[in-house]
Design a protein that fits this description.
The complex is a heterodimer of chains A (418) and B (72). Chain A has eleven helices and 13 strands. Chain A has 418 residues and is of the alpha/beta class. Chain A folds into four domains: 93 residues, OB fold (Dihydrolipoamide Acetyltransferase, E2P); 140 residues, Rossmann fold, CATH 3.40.50.261; 71 residues; 42 residues, no CATH class. In chain A, α4 runs parallel beside α9 and α5 runs parallel beside α7. Chain B has one domain: Helix Hairpins. Chain B is mainly alpha-helical and 72 residues long. Chain B starts with 13 loop residues before the first helix and ends with a helix. In chain B, α1 packs antiparallel against α2. The chains are: A alpha/beta (418), B mainly alpha (72). At the A-B interface, α10 of A face α1 and α2 of B.
């Protein structure tokens, strides 16, 4: 039975890293201790060959003490003799110092990039709504990749994935990830890549450290292709996630953000299709109704048009028959009356003018005639035959003469002449 | 004024007759004609007045006839 447990464990669990608190250390040639996290406990053994290897590291003088927080790397084995499961430790180092140092560095980097404005919304590119191809930068053997593939297959199998294998942990990781981002971005157009996912599963600050690395952060910031980062668990925040165009909590989430759901799209299409039909139906109904209305309006419009025309003709006819001819005749009558009056007037005036001239002539004539002279005291003498007596020799004594005065005649007899 | 060129008032329209009448009034009013001419013009004017009156009376009669025909 123990053998079967041992085979099962060793076949399933590969090399692991475990963080815990050292408990009951017995440090001889071989080191025996257990690790606890407060809730659980696991025994550890570190064979002398691995213990001696510590002397080649920076922790050569260090030995685990009761209560130390450590990180161990090793394999899980089942010790059949005592029926216990234990970790066969290959490497051990204190966590506290390392973690504190990294945390300080992380805080400093975070402040620097925040101050530079690299996390600002204005730098975020819009993610494509319907990407055709997505580049996935991750470890080719990782569970994260499996999650991305599975989610894509489930949501929209037509979306192509371009898997870019990169080292996602350890010293070579930063350069590998940064290079992958730069290369994919440079060839995005050529390969038809619409978006990039950079993802890996959970881990401690140390394991995820490369995603705070300047090289990676800067490659991400300068990447022109929309990039989604999902590094570690939701509680871990790597700087790459803050600089990326979108941060997702898990590889699955990152995929869901980019890959539209086929079912949702189909539902949406169905929804729009039914909406379109109902809109079309309503439009047709409205159109028919308005057509009917127009038809009725045209009908009643024509009737009222004809009626109006009748009325107009009647009015005009009335106007023509009554007012206008009357007015015309009246105007002519008025004109005729004016002319007739003028004719009488001007003719009378012409006659009067001539009469006036005639009178004037007569007055003038009279003023220069003999009667006028007589009026001034002169007189005219005529002999018996009526001849005008001009000299005393024209008459004889005893002859009768007539003296004409202005107001009458005097008959007299000549007594003598001289 | 030449009598030969003058049309017979009976053949004249209202407008023609009234136009000539106006011209006669204008000429008499100018006072440049001799008395005989003036009196001849006056006589012609009277004829034209009579023509115009006749035409107007005729028109009025026609209107009355039309109105009577249009009565409902």
């Amino acid at each position: 039975m123990s053998k079967r447990i041992s085979d099962a464990l060793e076949g399933r669990i590969d090399r692991i890293d475990v963080v815990g608190q050292v408990n009951s250390p017995r440090l001889g040639n071989h080191w025996y201790f257990s690790l606890t996290d407060g809730d659980s406990k696991i025994d550890c053994v570190m064979w002398a060959s691995s213990v001696s290897a510590i002397s080649n590291t920076e922790h050569c003088d260090w030995k685990p003490k009761q209560g130390d927080q450590v990180i161990v790397r090793g394999t899980v084995g089942h010790y059949a003799k005592f029926g216990k499961t234990q970790i066969v430790v290959q490497r051990i180092k204190p966590v506290g110092d390392e973690k504190g140092k990294l945390q300080q560095e992380y805080d400093a980097l975070l402040k620097e990039y925040r101050d530079a404005g690299w996390f600002e919304e204005e730098h975020k590119k819009t993610l494509p709504k319907y990407p055709r191809k997505i580049a996935v930068i991750t470890s080719a053997t990782s569970a994260a990749l499996q999650d991305v593939i599975e989610t894509t297959r489930r949501r929209m199998p037509s979306v192509e994935l371009l898997v870019v294998n990169a080292v996602m942990q350890g010293d070579a990781s930063s350069e590998s990830v940064a290079e992958a981002i730069e290369k994919v971005d440079a060839s995005a157009e050529k390969f038809g890549v619409d978006a990039i996912i950079v993802t890996r599963g959970g881990g401690g600050l140390e394991e995820l450290w490369s995603f705070n690395n300047r090289r990676v952060v800067e490659a991400t910031f300068h990447c022109d292709t929309p990039l989604v980062a999902a590094i570690g668990h939701e509680s871990d925040t790597s700087i790459i996630e803050l600089v990326a165009d979108h941060r997702a909590s898990t590889p699955t989430q990152a995929t869901m953000v980019l890959v539209p759901d086929k079912e949702e799209l189909l539902q949406m299409v169905d929804h729009y299709s039914s909406r379109l039909s109902s809109v079309l139906t309503r439009s047709i109904e409205r159109f028919c109704a308005s057509l009917l209305q127009v038809q009725q309006s045209v009908k009643s419009g024509i009737a009222s048009y004809i009626h109006e025309r009748f009325m107009l003709i009647a009015t005009q006819s009335e106007l023509l028959a009554s007012k206008r001819p009357h007015a015309l005749v009246q105007a002519r009558q008025k004109r005729l009356l004016t002319l007739q009056t003028a004719l009488s007037r001007v003719t009378n005036e012409g006659v009067s003018a001539r009469l006036f001239s005639l009178n004037a002539f007569r007055t003038r004539l009279e003023s220069i005639g003999p009667m006028e002279v007589l009026g001034r005291g002169y007189s005219l003498t005529q002999d018996a035959s009526g001849k005008v007596v001009r000299t005393s020799k024209d008459v004889n004594e005893g002859e009768h003469i007539r003296t004409v005065l202005a107001d009458g005649i005097i008959q007299s007899k000549v007594e003598c002449t001289s | 004024m030449s009598e030969k060129t003058l049309p017979n008032p009976d053949d004249m329209s209202f407008e023609e007759a009234s136009e000539e009448l106006g011209a006669i009034v204008k000429r008499i009013d100018a006072g440049e004609e001799d008395l005989e001419t003036m009196m001849k013009e006056h006589k012609r004017g009277q004829l034209l007045v009579a023509r115009c009156k006749l035409l107007l009376e005729d028109a009025q009669q026609q209107i009355k006839t039309m109105e009577a025909r249009n009565l409902p």
